Sequence to fold (423 residues):
Amino acid sequence: MRILLIAYEFPPSASPQSLRWAYLARELAHKGHDLHVLTIDLGGQTPGLPELPDSITIHRTYAGPFRGLFAMRRKLRARRQVATETSAAPLPASTSTNLHGWKRLLSERVQTLLARIVFPDARGEWMPWGRRRLLRLLNELAPSVVISSHEPATTLELGLLAKGRGYAWIADLGDPVLAGYTPARWRLRANRLEARVCREADAVIVTTEATRNLLMERHGHRDDVIVVSQGYDATAETEAELPVEMDPARTELLYTGSLYRFRRMDELLHALEELPGVRLNIASVSLPDELMAWAARFPERIRLLGFLPHRVALGLQRRADVLVNIANDDPLQIPGKVYEYLGANRPILHLGKPDDAIGSLLHRTGRGWACANDAGDIIRVLKGLAGRRPLLPNDGDGEVASHSWQALAGRVEALATGLAEKR
Fold:
């Protein structure tokens, strides 16, 4: 089966949606399918991402004036770098790691300006070049199925174009097009696009049951929305040598991923003040100033690792005592790292409501604990772990295994095969 994937976010991008389709595309290719990917030319390389088989054909296109300039800078930087093995070296938690400085500020201001005139945000500038290449690929490849990977919504607009040309089309929405973070000026257009996608796509995929229920409520004519969650790699090979060691005399906590404003660590930090045998490790590309100040005051309680390549982060997850997750403000979202944590086979401490989606998942699988993001509750849980490394049962073919990328790719394969056979 020949599959054409439209994915703005694809390696060397390290975004969650890029990782999602890097893994799914890899597994679909391993199953013998002919994968073609229409994406942007981002330039450069990002260490530690999943290795893609040579059988996948990637069609890179000009991303537009702003991202095109960004890509050119990445290529120039890559040429200047000395060829040396540095992929496992952590970046120090400094102002450069936190992406401060005039270049970062200028980039953010340009993106904010573009987002006012380009739908859905600055990435929408890709539309003319993506459209031109898509039409050519449809004629040349005649794919059995076209898949759009959202975000950005530009990929859905391109998918609608393929659908209009008579091709079977799967829309992998992930999150809704009309989301809590959608700017007011684009909310009407986002809602209309979301409704049209739900009406015209041959199949719609989302990552959570809550998103599925929301789409069914908004667009009641569609009750066959399919959940394909984020996942973990059951065959992952992590780095043998890691940049830091875990201290067996401590209870080592690990948080990996972005630290958005709504993911507050204040209560966890207050709890650590009362837990001398516990250390929190944080691997994140951008660290709030207050967190860096707290780490300077309590260096024995917190260790800042800066940015870590994806594969290195997976290795550390497997060696930590407890993996930390902080609930999103949006109950529709389950961060992709939660599924990475499941694959690490280490206990998870979820700071959120015990009955939210993540708390319920942990309860069903026995993979950790959910407690309120409150210092007292956190202290009670962590004191119970003092001096012991909690072990987890092997889930086998149970619910955890159903979230492996290998199992999830099987679901996408079955869906795509069914649509292709109907054409």
Remarks:
- DSSP finds 14 helices and 13 strands in the chain.
- The first helix runs from residue 16 to 30.
- The chain has two domains: 2-231+405-422, 251-402.
